[in-house]
Amino acid sequence: MTFLARLFCAATLGLMSALPVSAQYVSAEDVVDVSLMPGYRLDGSRHMAAIRIRLAPGWKTYWRAPGDGGVPTVLRLTRAEGVTGMAIHWPRPQVFYSNGLRAIGYEGDVILPLEFALDTAGVARVSGRLDLGVCQDVCMPITVDLGGVLPVETTRDGAIAAALSDRPYTAAEAGAGAVTCAIEPIADGLRVTVRAQVPDTGRNEALVVEHRDPMIWVSEAATERQGGWLIGVADVVPADHGPFAMNRGDLRITVIGSRMAVELNRCTG
To answer: In what residue span(s) does the Thiol:disulfide interchange protein DsbD N-terminal domain sit (predicted)?
Structure first.
């Protein structure tokens, strides 16, 4: 079956810097192509598919937590026949700096593996909507509609398998040690100071804090390395902009550098 992706570019482009007039008429079709890769069955209850994003030279797209200089990539299922759940396996991103802003994402082509939980041994069908941003000197917010079948095929797709292998290390794989989170109230929420015993991950090292509730905003963490420790400070602000009770288990912590990324996830008091 042929998999189709239709691109709808927002009418207003967000300009990151002054551009020549000709640059203001770049279209989405000129810089990005998005498609659904049908993938393969892992077993009777799981299927591995993927989204392939092809970018024109010099263009970037972004990770789930893109930093102040990026646009989050978000996938929402609109139809799921024979599917009971979905998880995105994010490949290791890069840290970029542009006009003084930090962004986290991907340059060039990227494959985002999608693992589906199934309630059928036969063909399943999915449709979804992908929101993403693509940036060079100009940023374009784009919505992509994707749809197709998840076949019973069990032969592994080498490109998807390669993307799965390019994941962040676990804390154990990286040889990371203790991770602590000190929490203090601020006027509109909480401030979290993370201290992580983690090996040097390379240039442009960034510690990223996320909350599992997407309605709770987390600031970009100010990051500093002190020997074998990485310290990051971030503000966590709920929708009502007030103090709230937060479980440390709701925090997701990732360290990203030029050589590797490490998923630390949980922290203690």
So the answer is: 43-145
Looking at the domain that runs over 4-165, which CATH code has it been given? Answer: 2.60.40.1250
Dihedral angle computed from the Cα positions of residues 141, 147, 153 and 156, in that order, rounded to the nearest 10 degrees: 0
> Cα separation of 139 and 111, whole Å?
21
Structure tokens of 28?
């989405």
Task: Residue count of the chain, please give it.
Answer: 269
| The listed CATH number (3.30.70, 2.20.25, 1.20.140, 2.60.40) that belongs to domain 169-263 | 2.60.40
* pLDDT confidence of residue 35: 96
Count of other CB atoms within 10 angstroms of residue 4: 11
Pairwise pLDDT comparison (2 vs 177), residue with the higher score? 177
Q: What integer pLDDT is reported at residue 61 of this predicted model?
A: 96
Helix or strand holding residue 8 (H, E): strand 4-9
How many angstroms separate the Cα of 139 from the Cα of each of 14, 28, 81, 122, 152?
A: 5, 10, 34, 41, 39
| Domain boundaries, given as residue ranges, for the chain | 4-165, 169-263
Identity at 261, one-letter amino acid code? A
